[in-house]
């Protein structure tokens, strides 16, 4: 996946490059400080994504994105800006994401994972089927390649997330929100602010206090709670 950065602030550009290089396999093929230079480059070179500051010289980011939207092959646009007020414009231009400065590392990491996943799906570059269902988790200072189907539930533990299978416990150095964004929603549901459940592992739904539920799962004796705020969506998913 090839990308360019259009950012006239050196510090912000270097910080973004650091995140891209450390949290993705995206290749940065160009860096620009001027909107006109960006337009000239992408008219002659194909790129897959543009990290685009709104406040850049010659042609601002919004105007530049409007021009790009007319291309037959449209790259993903990720706006990077200190201004919230352009979010509506970004939405109308179907931007992939809208990142505010100063950068939040976990927010950037989550966005990059999603960007690569969507790019792979769009271009049929996804790994073979046997690998699509795998995920990298940590155990005893080693990266373990785990089949997602074996995960029963996940639990937030301060700034990390712990994933439980029938007989193993793994961890990932991400918040539960960031980790949930990487999981297929066809199998996993965030039933509580601190828990994610593998829907295919549910074997019993137990009514609990205040119209909530506890869930018994295949492969574990632990009962996963469903919070009141997630009851409506849970009932829809489970056809209750």
UniProtKB/TrEMBL annotation:
Residues 135-240 form the HTH LytTR-type domain. The keyword Lyase does not apply. The modification 4-aspartylphosphate is found at residue 53. The lineage of its organism: Bacteria, Bacillati, Bacillota, Clostridia, Eubacteriales. InterPro entries: CheY-like_superfamily, LytR-like, LytTR_DNA-bd_dom, Sig_transdc_resp-reg_receiver. May play the central regulatory role in sporulation. It may be an element of the effector pathway responsible for the activation of sporulation genes in response to nutritional stress. Spo0A may act in concert with spo0H (a sigma factor) to control the expression of some genes that are critical to the sporulation process. Pfam families: LytTR (PF04397), Response_reg (PF00072). Keywords: Phosphoprotein. The keyword rRNA-binding does not apply. Residues 2-116 form the Response regulatory domain. This is Stage 0 sporulation protein A homolog.
């Amino acid at each position: 996946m090839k990308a360019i950065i259009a950012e006239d602030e050196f510090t912000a550009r270097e910080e973004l490059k650091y995140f891209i290089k450390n949290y993705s396999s995206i290749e940065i093929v160009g860096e620009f400080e001027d909107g006109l230079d960006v337009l000239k480059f992408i008219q002659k070179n194909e790129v897959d994504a543009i990290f685009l500051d709104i406040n850049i010289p010659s042609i601002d980011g919004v105007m530049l994105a409007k021009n790009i939207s007319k291309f037959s092959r449209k790259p993903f646009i990720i706006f990077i800006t200190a201004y919230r007020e352009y979010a509506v414009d970004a939405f109308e231009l179907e931007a992939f994401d809208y990142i505010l400065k100063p950068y939040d590392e976990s927010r950037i990491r989550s966005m990059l994972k999603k960007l690569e996943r969507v790019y792979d799906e769009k271009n049929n570059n996804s790994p073979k089927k046997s690998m699509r269902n795998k995920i990298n988790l940590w155990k005893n200072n080693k990266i373990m390649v785990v089949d997602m189907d074996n995960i029963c539930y996940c639990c937030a533990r301060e700034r990390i997330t712990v994933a439980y299978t029938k007989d193993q416990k793994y961890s990932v150095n991400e918040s539960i929100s960031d980790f949930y964004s990487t999981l297929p929603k066809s199998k996993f549901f965030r039933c509580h602010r601190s828990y994610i459940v593998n829907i295919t592992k549910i074997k019993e739904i137990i009514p609990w206090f205040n119209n909530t539920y506890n869930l018994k799962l295949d492969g574990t004796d632990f009962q996963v709670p469903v919070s009141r705020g997630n009851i409506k969506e849970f009932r829809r998913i489970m056809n209750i």
